[in-house]
Design a protein that fits this description.
It comes from Lactuca virosa. By secondary structure, the chain is mostly helical. Helix content is 73%, strand content 0%. The protein starts with 12 loop residues before the first helix and ends in a 5-residue tail after the last helix.
Length: 316
């Protein structure tokens, strides 16, 4: 469930483009006006505003935003502007070729559905001229790299149906490949985690716990490490409860000294139009404070205003 709040009576994309142009005029930028418009328009509405702006003023809106804004507000709004698939392609290109961030690349790939990944791969090639798989191979290695490549290329059902016999067999295979033996058979973990649907994997996790008394997540964390562990845990948690997974990622980004603004921006921007209400509910349940309150205490200025606008009302 999305968190985005859109006004009941919308101005036209042409009017929005004119108001944005007005916000850019004169000395300095009226950031409040920019936020009031862009933080309350969905992906298709933002695309229409961009088209109108280009027609009316013969320049790209994102180019103007880039020159008018600065700091984390600029980063957040520029990431907000594209549609989800194009945005994911931008995040991955940056994480794999410019500002290397394998944690971010792992999060994006392992939390997306097969149809989202298919669209993402096509767009990545169209936008950047190279293949996502090639850039992944250049930056990753070992079990981690093999798992991500398999996860990108293996067709998986997006339905809710599961085969109970296969579920029990997979739970048994994972136990035999991990906790039951000395050392770990990583190949079995790679094969099952990259080849099974979310519904199937969630059922495997439940069967594992019922049969062997410990959780599959605990087994993964005990048997693997590093980016490979991150990828397996992301796949598993997004099969069971994506809201809980992203609530944890957000909590970690704000925990301790300083804030990981890159992660904070990425997760809020990419999930606002998908499942942010579930993430907010999980955050409150697990951390005994609202996500809005946490973001408010870790950010400031127009950057804070923009992120809180995306998060929507603060339900305590």
């Amino acid at each position: 469930m999305a968190a985005l709040t859109i006004p009941p009576v919308l101005s036209s994309p042409r009017d929005d483009a004119m108001h944005l142009y007005k916000a850019f005029k004169g000395f300095g930028c009226d950031s409040t006006a920019v936020i009031n418009i862009l933080a309350h328009r969905d992906s298709s509405q933002r695309a229409l505003i961009e088209n109108e702006y280009k027609l009316m003023y013969s320049e790209a809106l994102t180019k103007r935003l880039s020159s008018e804004l600065s700091g984390n507000l600029k980063k957040a709004i520029l990431l907000w502007m594209p549609d989800p698939a194009r945005r994911d392609a931008m995040i991955l290109r940056d994480a794999l070729t410019t500002d290397i961030d394998l944690k971010a690349a792992t999060e994006v790939i392992c939390s997306r559905t097969p149809s989202q990944l298919q669209h993402l791969k096509q767009l990545y090639h169209a936008l950047h001229g190279g293949y996502l798989e090639h850039d992944l191979q250049a930056q990753t290695s070992g079990d981690h790299g093999q798992l991500l490549l398999a996860y990108l290329s293996t067709p998986r059902s997006e339905g809710l149906e599961v085969d109970r016999r296969m579920v029990d067999l997979d739970a048994k295979s994972l136990f035999k490949s991990g906790e039951k033996r000395l050392g770990t058979d990583e190949k079995t973990f790679r094969m099952i985690f990259s080849g099974r649907s979310r519904a199937h994997l969630a059922a495997v996790s439940s069967a594992y716990h019922n049969t062997y008394g410990s959780t599959l997540k605990k087994a993964v964390k005990g048997e693997t490490s590093g980016y490979f562990e991150d990828a397996l845990v992301t796949i598993l948690q997004c099969a069971e409860n994506p809201g809980k997974y992203f609530a944890k990622v957000l909590h970690r980004s704000m925990k301790g000294l300083g804030t990981n603004d890159k992660t904070l921006i990425r997760v809020i921007v990419t999930r606002t139009e998908i499942d942010m209400q579930y993430i907010k509910a999980e955050y409150h349940k697990n951390h005994h404070k609202t996500l809005n309150d946490a973001v408010h205490s870790e950010t400031s200025g127009h950057y804070r205003t923009f992120l809180l606008s995306l998060l929507g009302p603060n339900h305590r």
